[in-house]
Amino acid sequence: MRVILAIKDGRVITMAGPVLERATVLIENGKIKSVGHATGIPEGAQVIDAAGRVVMPGIMDAHTHIGVHEDGLGWEGADGNECTDPATPQVRALDGINPEDMAFEDVRAAGITACTSAPGSGNVLGGEGVVIKTFGKTADQMFVRVWGMKAAFGENPKRVYREQKKMPTTRMGTAAVLRENLVKAQNYLKKLEAGEKDPDKLPERDLKMEALVRVLRREHPLRAHAHRADDIVTAIRIAEEFGIKVSIEHCTEGHKIAGYLAEKGVPCVVGPSMTGREKVELQNLTFETAGILARAGVKIALTTDHPVIPLQYLPICAGLAIRSGLDEEDALRAITINAAEIMGVSDRMGSIEPGKDADVIVLSGSPFELMTTVQYTLINGKVVYEAK
Question: Which of 11, 181, 295, 315 has its CA 20 to 30 A from that of 361?
Answer without folding.
Answer: 295
